[in-house]
From TrEMBL:
SUPFAM superfamilies: UDP-Glycosyltransferase/glycogen phosphorylase. Pfam families: Glyco_trans_1_4, Glyco_transf_4. This is Glycosyl transferase family 1. The keyword Nucleotide-binding does not apply.
Length: 392
């Protein structure tokens, strides 16, 4: 027996019908307690959809850990054709299916098993593309183009991703739409930042995060009032932990010691819930995203930083260039430590600059609220239900 499934009680829809109620949504994704950004995204989107009156059911990609969420109606077991077919049928019990896509979460070469799952759907399928590769392999390209061909709509979360998908892939451009990555918008909180100014990077830790870039320049900030500190918050990514243990974190701690800035660099590997994380981000003088990637078209951490009204300093990955272009932060070259040090010094020493960036972040934040983002998904779902021809 591949998996146990508890079928939801609501009736399957009739194609072409008009909806006086919000459409029911089935989501295929990783889901908490799986520790990854996609799971966090799906849980927050589910909450936003529910807040807009939609009934949400989740088919969770199994990772061996149990979940207690009442939303989870079944699990997809990669490598099992029976589970793929059963997952399609579960999603068919809803009005619309939302498929979260990353290459690494589905079975088969480059996640190609998801093609059979989408092929088994009889309801409109909205695919949310979290990664659009700039230089995909031929097989990665063919898999994604096949996914897009079977989907009713492909959602991306930045305009650069939209342009890349429409221009560089052989897909129907009319299927591509942009819906911003959502964020939790904190209430008005008057935080008095005390002690040493904090530069913050957070998220699942591993190679590619670029933590070494910030450690390299911390020594040049020692002369500033209050002697700023650099806090790296978050657990090591489970896949990195399984392959290499804490080698990356240990190497960064040793880098700080050998550079003489150990008293200005700290690591917090503890888990934080949404409220605790928001409080941490709001307490920071600035958020630093020093990522190695020159290709990243979606960053949930970047969106969360802006939603919390904090100035951002980021390397020049595409989503940062797009979101920070109106003044919510500073973008620096990946291989320009002098520019990184100058940007951090400017934020820490010029309250007018920091205040202006924080104000722009607060201006942008409302468009990112999960309830607003979820409402856009529901509008998209309704549109496809109306466009579908009535069942014969």
């Amino acid at each position: 027996m591949d998996s146990l499934f508890a079928y939801p009680s609501f009736a399957a829809p009739v194609a072409g019908q008009c909806f006086s109620r919000p459409p029911s949504i089935g989501i295929l994704s990783t889901y908490p307690p799986t520790p990854c950004g996609l799971a966090t995204f799906t849980a927050a989107l589910s909450d936003g959809l529910s807040a807009n009156g939609a009934e949400v059911s989740v088919v969770r990609i199994a990772d061996g850990s149990p979940t207690s969420s009442s939303r989870v109606v079944g699990e997809l077991i990669n490598g099992s054709a029976t589970s793929v077919a059963a997952s399609s049928e579960l999603l068919n019990q809803c009005d619309v299916a939302i498929i979260q896509h990353e290459y690494g979460i589905y079975g088969g070469a480059d996640g190609e098993e998801v093609l059979d799952l989408i092929g088994g759907l009889h309801v409109p399928a909205i695919v949310v593309a979290h990664t659009i590769l700039k230089n995909p392999t031929p097989h990665q390209r063919s898999v994604f183009e096949a996914i897009a061909a079977r989907a009713d709509q492909v959602v991306v979360m930045s305009e650069v991703a939209n342009a890349r998908l429409r221009l560089d892939f052989n897909i129907d451009r009319r299927k591509v739409t942009t819906i911003p990555h959502g964020a939790t918008i904190p209430g008005r909180v008057s935080l008095k930042r005390s002690g040493r100014p904090t530069l913050l990077t957070w998220g699942l830790l591993g190679p590619g995060k670029g933590i070494e870039r910030v450690i390299d320049v911390m020594g040049s900030l020692h002369d500033l009032p209050g002697r700023p500190r650099y806090l790296v918050a978050g657990r090591t990514h489970p896949k990195v932990l399984a392959a290499d243990g804490e080698a990356y974190r240990d190497a960064r701690a040793e880098q700080a010691r050998s550079s003489g800035v150990a008293d200005s660099v700290s690591f917090d590997p503890g888990y934080r819930g949404v409220a605790s994380l928001v409080e941490l981000v709001q307490s920071a003088a600035a958020v630093v995203l020093p990522y190695d990637s020159t290709d990243q078209v979606t960053s949930g951490v970047l969106v969360d930083a802006i939603a919390c009204g904090r100035p951002v300093v980021a390397t020049a990955f595409p989503h940062a260039i797009e979101l920070l272009g109106t003044g919510a932060g500073i973008v620096v070259g990946h291989d320009d430590p002098d520019a990184l040090a100058a940007a951090l010094r400017r934020l820490l020493t010029d309250p007018r600059v920091a205040g202006s960036m924080a104000a722009e972040a607060r201006r942008l934040a409302p468009t990112m609220a999960w309830t607003s983002v979820a409402k856009t998904y529901l509008s998209l779902a309704r549109r496809h239900l109306v466009q579908r021809p009535a069942a014969v």
